[in-house]
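ARCHIVE CARD
SHELF: 3
SLOT: left
DATA:
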Amino acid sequence: MTSNLPSADDSNGRLAHRDPWAPETSDANSHANGEAKASPTTQPGVTRPDPKSPAAISLRAFLLGGAFGVSLCGILVALERQPSFWRPPFFLLTLAVFHFLEYYITATYNPTAATVSAFLLSQNGSAYNVAHTLAFLECVLHIVYFFPSSAAAAPRDDLIISPRTLWLGLGFGMIVTGQATRTMAMVHAGSNFNHLVQVKRKQGHVLVTDGVYAWLRHPSYFGFWCWGLGTQVVLGNWICLVGYAVVLWRFFSGRIEKEEELLIEFFGDEYVQYRKRTPVGIPFIP
């Protein structure tokens, strides 16, 4: 659902905020009151980079496209020569798709917010990048040093569907479901979607409860949570799966609690009733 508050969340498109692990920026807060304020770090006479630089945007799109192509080739080569090594390039492929869609959907449905930062390549903070790096390394170490043949093991003949196949199916399903849910949330929020924090309700904005928001009140959060855990299931990363689950739950639990305080302030009983009938979808977050 969307609302009249520019939103980085799908949460009704009502509130704009940073994505998982992303630190809030002074620029985001400088527009919270509808006024553009000079950044305290900007020096007089210094020209700030153009946030919509065609060169910067095209370069990032090119690199993501290249990463997608190289990863796809890596998967095909691995399946042909060393089946146990298809997972690392698959992880890189899912990351390339995710970050490309973040910008592409923003540019298509909310072009005014289609800046370089919409790719979310460096705006999510160091913890985000460290988490994905550790996940990649755990997968590689798992394959090379601990269970080099586990990913390529043949399924048992006495089973119709092997447990490994079921586990991979679960992971692929979570990735597709998470990405699709997040994308639909961004599309439905349209111009209300924004990756920056904005906490002031704009005139004429209303709480929207249809579309994907009729089923989930924070579909963008649910989508990222489902997508993130799904990648670790596919990679077979037991350590990072637990780590992702704990970190994402703590992040979204705290973020949703604070955000909904503002939403109740903005929409009153209308949001209270909506919250009662619509779940978040993330376990143990009411």
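SLOT: right
DATA:
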Amino acid sequence: MPTTVNGLKAYLASKGMRYSRVEQLTGGMGNYVFRVIDDKEGSSIYKHAEPYIASSNGTIPFSVARMDFEATAMTNLPDVIAKFLPEARNVHVPTIMNYDQTAKVLVMTDAGKTTLKEAYTDPATDVPEIGRQLGEWLAALHVATQTIEIGEGGNPTARSIYRWSYSNLAHVANQYGLNADFCEYINNTYGLSLGHDNECVCHGDFWPGNIMLDEEKNLTVIDWEMCRRGRGELDVAQFAAEAYLLDRFRGGKGLMDSFCKAYRRSLAKVWGDITIDRHWARRFGVHIGVHLAFWPASVEWAGWEETKAVIELGHELMRRGDAEDLDWLSKNVLGTLFNRDKQDPQSLCP
């Protein structure tokens, strides 16, 4: 199977496909991904699923049905989203060129070589504008798909994998001398909810590492295997958490602020009023807290002391979110979503 360059070359030969060279790409976790280059026709991306998370070396099962959900989402959702973004937008989904469902090989257009996480520090990258475009696009995804199905069970495997940070939160808390019992409560309460959340289609892994920029600064949202039926605020919280880390440690360019403001205003524009309620705020606060309390322990952003400070902030966000402490949230890192301002005077939370 195409899990290596030679394996993909053998697959291409069996299909009579012409190519000049093959490059295996790094950075992803779930699948084996390659760039296939034809010197005359250009490049395309080949993605192959095995029944496990690729980066786990076979130790973490992950159903290959994820690729069926990914292909369905990439085929059906762009037109649905476009109805809520009638004007030309600079955010795209890769176009599927072929899907070999038997071999679980998905071929799509090449969206470029640079992720938003990588481009963030480039002086030529207009970070606030990108945040605005992504906030508008994500709001359209969530609004447009409230009644859209993506397959049987809404991708139950993705729901299970998405709980990973919740299930392992207590382990990180122990490492940093924090309250592991509270983390078990968060997992048993909110992690459990992931299995039956069902309000809209979520991307499921929406973060700057899954946003590609090409040479013309077009934005493409990749890696749809985690898409599922769920709650939109979890997509928002994941991106906001990663944007917060970029802003804090890579230059303070305002990605989180511009993204959250655009998402909020887009919801108000589409629905005619503000529909974010206390439950939305609670799940958002808890999830951004979980993300900040878990992932910085695995992905290096800073030294031990600063990492611990971020993890402690994550715990505080979980506590405040769980308690629906909207006053505290509005005065701290989530103020962009919850505060009134002159340009957007409507209050998000009653």
